[in-house]
Amino acid sequence: MSERDDSYDPQHAVHTKKGRYYCDPATGEMLVSVTNALDEHAIEALAPAAAKATAEWLMDNLPKAIRAAADPEDMEAFIKEAKAQYKVQWEKKADLGSRVHNIAEAINLGAPYIPDEEAEPFVESYRKFLRDFGVDIRRRDIKAAECTVLHRGLGYGGTSDIWAYLTFDGPTSPIVPRFRPRKVPADPIPTPSGLWLIDIKTSLTKPASAVYDDRVLQLAALRNAEVALVCPPECRYGEAEFHDSSHEFPVPEFVGTAILNLRETTYGFVPLPADQAAFEAFCGLLPLARYVHELDLRGFKPVQPPTNHRKAA
Ligand SMILES: [Zn+2]
């Protein structure tokens, strides 16, 4: 999933063989990205999702599959192609997600953007969210957009999509009727008014109510980062001699954290409990990611049996 256009990369992000890292412009130190650390937490849904994408591609290519089945070499080539398809599809999705993010950022900054037909329905859903939740760009309700945040003490970095001031009717809000849960009580969800940390998720297929456990960990990691960076272009790559403390400010306190699911015709704003326990769970992944990324097992192979035993036999 690394063949993406670099222009979409967040500030200070670096591609490595071990996934995304952030390079601290103050020290040059490499800090593991929040989502990279989260990859150490096995997401059960990934394998079935890959299987589904593979099966769908196979159905779309059935005549070719049947032809390939007649010849062992053709079959091997076909299977190789089929195996790569889920990645191709996921990269396409990641690319669309990045484009939607970039346009949302432009909207937040009141900046112009190049129209993008495929991204436009999601952008329209984003505008609807802004209208429905009374977020006014001109009133500076959005405090930050696509902001790189670091936790130097714990050695991680990430990108936070939106920090927005939201005003709700009361301390809790009712769930949208069609999304009311069936197996647990449909309790109102805490929605204090104030500054919220919001992460945008784009999907063509998942419902606007979709939530996953790693989202909670991600929000907790972003919310608990120490500093946010607002660097000029000259210190965006590597350790920068121009970098100084005026490019940094402390990450503020948030009254709530949420994901904003953008869909083609709708959206879902889902507050999630990214609390201290979620943060501690995320922190548990950091030593694991650090250890596994350093581990090199290439030299470890089966050894020969001891010769003295071989003689005896
Ligand atoms: Zn800087």
Gist of the model:
Helix content is 37%, strand content 21%.
Characterization of the model:
Helix content is 37%, strand content 21%. It has eight helices and twelve strands. α3 (62-69) packs antiparallel against α4. The chain is globular. Residues 1-5 have low confidence and may be disordered. Zinc ion (ZN) binds at residues 25, 231, 235, 240, 243, 247.
Helix share, percent: 25-40%
The CATH architecture assignment of the domain at 6-42 and 119-295 turns out to be: Alpha-Beta Complex
**Span between N and C termini?**
52 Å
Main pleated sheet: 10 strands, mixed
Low-confidence stretches: 1-5
Principal-axes geometry comes out as globular
Q: What molecules are bound to this protein?
A: zinc ion
Q: How many beta-strand segments?
A: 12
In CATH terms, what is the fold-level topology of the domain at 6-42 and 119-295? Lambda Exonuclease, Chain A
The number of helical runs is 8
Over the alpha carbons, how many angstroms does the gyration radius reach?
A: 23 Å
SSE succession: EEEHHHHHEEEEEHEEEEHH
Helical/strand content category: alpha+beta
Mean pLDDT: 90
| Level-1 CATH class name of the domain at 6-42 and 119-295 | Alpha Beta
Indicate the proportion of strand residues.
Answer: 15-25%
